[in-house]
Write a structure and sequence with these properties.
11% helix, globular, Porin
Length: 495
């Protein structure tokens, strides 16, 4: 669906038609305009009549005719009297300020859940009825720019379906309402070749739009799997980013100041992977010793581009450091990888590779290494249509059979597939998306399919409808996902 948020632009030139103050202000402006226009017309009338104060001079009939023609000549011209415009005046923001905002109503209906056990939540029927608001402000002046974005939502489904008493306070804190700071940074051009960016931001690595292999810097919001694309799930992280440009190349250095991790489904929810509540992971505090570092080297050339990455970061997924107590922690790991795109005709070929060192698991004490590979292709040769196919394999080096036991549930190789078909209709106002994402051959390890239609009623208003079908499998996130099939609806207003 369109991103489960509202977006849009409230820029200079936006009409303001609401509010008593705006009505009073408009009336005042019109009143003053009428008075000024009347004064101007009075001056013109005075000039027109000024000649009547002079003594009359006898004239011949011929002269009289000429004077009459001269006097009446003005009435033959087109009427140019002023008329009041029906359009209200426009409010213009300063050139240095841009505001964007959005409002959305999102709803999902679960149609495949079974009746619950006594004392358990009933997941059937209405599972989301959420209002979402976002506001984004950009301030730019000369060679610098500042951005601050906030988002908030409230989900009334738990009140409307009468199930609120079955959920824990922790669940309601994360699923019923939320106010969060999104991107918030200061960006400056230090020189023609050097840029600096400080604050909460999103940095996208890699070439894939559906499977993450090298895109590892920003965590994801995974509380509602399958409902939206990866690009709408990234969570901004506080970091300092320095970019140096030389020719076709860009060298980037990053210091990550804020340890931030994936948001997983919470106990009581339909996507929670464990049979009982597990303590929340112990997150590293924000300190000098927990600073993370990353760097990239990328180049853009005719028909292709390439990038290399390296980072010392925290693994975004926790492991059980103590199985008896259920204590979980995050390991610090080394990451290295690369990505490449090559365009030829209507085809876009892409590949990614990644190496991980220092991965920790629950059933063994030794650190492990993993090699991830991705290949993909985009084809855009059909009218208003794009087809994408991607395949990835994640291989654990020196696999230990103990890793296959719970709670790790690992395999030496995990395969992941993604197929996407997008097509536009009705002069690009109707958008169809089909996304198939699966683990294992033919979703044998779990996955989902999303069918979605978006219709642009106007430049500012979009309606979205669709269905998401889930398959259970051995992959940890999809062990019990098969009963969560749902319809989805959204109305989005951008301003």
């Amino acid at each position: 669906m369109s991103r489960f948020s509202l977006s849009g632009n409230l820029k200079k030139g936006c009409n303001t038609q609401f509010g008593l103050k705006r009505v009073v202000g408009l009336s005042t402006i019109l009143f003053v305009f009428i008075i000024v226009s009347s004064i101007s017309r009075a001056d013109e009338l005075e000039d027109l009549l000024s000649g009547f104060e002079e003594e009359a001079v006898p004239t011949t009939d011929k002269d009289s005719e000429g004077n009459i023609d001269e006097l009446l000549s003005g009435f033959e011209e087109d009427d140019q009297s002023f008329t009041l415009s029906d359009d209200p005046p426009e409010y213009v923001f300063p050139d240095w300020l841009e505001l964007s905002g959005s409002l959305a109503l999102q709803s999902t209906v679960n149609f495949s859940q079974q009746a619950p056990l006594p004392g358990q939540p009933d997941y059937r029927g209405l599972s989301m009825f959420r209002g979402v608001a976002e506001l984004l402000s950009d301030v730019h002046q000369d060679n610098w720019k500042a951005r601050v974005g906030i988002a908030m939502f409230y989900d009334a489904a738990y009140l409307l379906n009468g199930q609120r008493q079955f959920y824990t306070d922790e669940f309601l804190d994360q699923y019923e309402s939320e106010v969060r700071l999104n991107e918030a940074y200061l960006q400056a051009d230090l020189s023609p070749k050097l840029d600096l960016k400080i604050g909460r931001q999103i940095v996208v690595w890699g070439k894939s739009d559906n499977i993450r292999v090298t895109d590892i810097l920003n965590p994801l919001d995974l509380r509602w799997p399958g409902l939206v694309d990866i690009r709408f799930l990234r969570l901004p992280v506080t970091m300092t980013k320095l970019d140096y440009y030389r020719g076709n190349w860009n060298l980037g250095g990053i210091v990550i100041h804020e340890p931030r991790f994936n948001k997983f489904p919470v106990y009581n929810g339909e996507f929670y992977p464990f049979v009982r509540a597990i303590p929340e992971p112990e997150e590293p505090e924000v300190s000098w010793s927990n600073q993370q570092a990353a760097m990239s080297l990328s180049g853009i050339f005719s028909g292709w581009d390439i990038a290399f990455y390296a980072a010392y970061v925290f693994d975004k997924n926790p492991y059980f450091s103590d199985l008896e107590s259920g204590q979980r922690q995050y390991a610090d790991v080394f990451f290295g990888g690369g990505a490449v795109n090559y365009a030829v005709g209507n085809w876009l070929l892409k590949g990614e590779a990644a190496f991980w060192d220092g991965l920790r698991f629950s059933t063994i004490e030794e650190d492990k290494q993993r090699v991830d590979m991705l290949v993909g292709v985009d084809y855009s040769g059909f009218t208003e249509t794009t087809i994408t196919l991607e395949f990835a394999n994640r291989h654990l080096v020196d696999f230990d059979d103990r890793l296959s036991q719970s709670p790790d549930g690992q395999k030496q190789d995990w395969q992941q597939f993604a197929f996407r078909l997008t097509r536009d209709f009705l002069n690009d106002t109707l958008h169809f998306t089909l996304l198939l994402s699966s683990y294992g051959i033919f979703a044998g390890e779990g996955g989902f399919e999303r069918f979605q239609l978006e219709y642009d009623l106007s430049d500012n208003l979009t309606l979205t409808g669709g269905v998401v079908l889930y398959q259970s499998g051995d992959f940890p996130s999809f062990q019990d996902a098969g009963d969560n099939d749902r319809l989805l609806f959204e109305v989005e207003y951008r301003f």
